Amino acid sequence: MSIDGKKVIEVLEKINVKMEENKAYLSELDAAIGDGDHGLNMCKGFKAVVEKLKEDDGQDIAGILKKTGMALVTNVGGASGPLYGTAFMKAAGCVSGKTEIDINDFGEMLYYALEGIKMRGRSEAEDKTMIDALEPALKAVREGISKELEAKEVLRLAKEAAFKGVEHTKDIIAKKGRASYLGLRSIGHQDAGATSSAIMLETIYQAFN
Ligand code: ADP
Ligand code: MG
C-alpha cells in the first residue's frame, strides 16, 4: 500500500483535528510538570500547518513535509515547535522527488525524524520526552516491516508501542525540558510531548482504517 501527497495532507488535517480534541488534555499533562501550554502549542502549530497547505496541489510530498516543519518552527513558541518542526523537515529529506510513499518510506521518515529530534534536543531515550514514544514506535515499525506485515498492522503496532512508551514516561525522571527542573518530583507524571507523539501516530493509523 502506498499513499500520495493528497493523502499526506489529509492525514495532517486529521492530526490538526486530533490536537484540537486533545488540547486541554495535553496542556493538563504539561501543567503538572511544565508550564501548561503543550496543547495550545500543538493546536497553534497544526492550525498553521493546515493553513499553509490549503492551496497545496499535493504533488510534492517532500515539499508538503517541509512546509509542515516550517509552519511548526515558525508558529510554536515552546520547545516542541522546533523539535517537531525539525522532525518533519528531516522526514522530508528522505522522500524528495517521491509522489507516493509506502510503509518502508514511513520507517525511513520516522528514523530521520527521531534523529532530528535527538540532535536538536540533545536528548535520548529515557529522558522523559517525545523520544520515549517515538523510539519504541520506530522499533515496532522496523519489526513489522521485517515480518512483512501489512502496512495497517505495522501502523497499529507503532501506535501501540508509542502509547506503551507514554505509560513508561510516568516511571522515569525528566532529564530534558522544563520537567527536568523538578528532578525526582517529575516521577509519577506522564510526559506531554510523548503523549502528543503517540496521538499523532494513532491518527496516522486511524487514517488507514
Ligand atoms: P515548552 O516545554 O517550551 O513549554 P511544550 O510544552 O510545547 O514546550 O513541549 C514540551 C514537550 O517537549 C515535553 O513534554 C517533551 O516531550 C518535549 N521536550 C522538551 N525538551 C526536549 C528535548 N530537549 N528533547 C526532546 N523533547 C523535548
Ligand atoms: Mg510547555
TrEMBL record:
Ranges for the DhaL domain? 6-206
- Catalyzed reactions: dihydroxyacetone + phosphoenolpyruvate = dihydroxyacetone phosphate + pyruvate
Listed GO MF terms: glycerone kinase activity; phosphoenolpyruvate-glycerone phosphotransferase activity
Q: What's this protein's name? A: phosphoenolpyruvate--glycerone phosphotransferase
Q: Which UniProt keywords apply?
A: Glycerol metabolism, Kinase, Transferase
Q: Which organism is it from?
A: Clostridium paridis
- The EC code for this enzyme is 2.7.1.121
Family annotation (InterPro entries): DhaK_L_YcgS, DhaL_dom, DhaL_dom_sf, Dihydroxyacetone_Kinase
Q: Which regions span the lipid bilayer? A: none
Question: What biological function has been recorded for the protein in this entry?
Answer: ADP-binding subunit of the dihydroxyacetone kinase, which is responsible for the phosphoenolpyruvate (PEP)-dependent phosphorylation of dihydroxyacetone. DhaL-ADP is converted to DhaL-ATP via a phosphoryl group transfer from DhaM and transmits it to dihydroxyacetone binds to DhaK.
* Pathway involvement of the protein, from the record: Polyol metabolism; glycerol degradation
* SUPFAM superfamilies documented for this protein: DhaL-like
Cellular component GO terms held in the UniProt record: cytosol
Tell me, which GO biological process terms does this entry list? glycerol catabolic process
NCBIfam families per UniProt: dha_L_ycgS (TIGR02365)
Quote the subunit structure annotation: Homodimer. The dihydroxyacetone kinase complex is composed of a homodimer of DhaM, a homodimer of DhaK and the subunit DhaL.
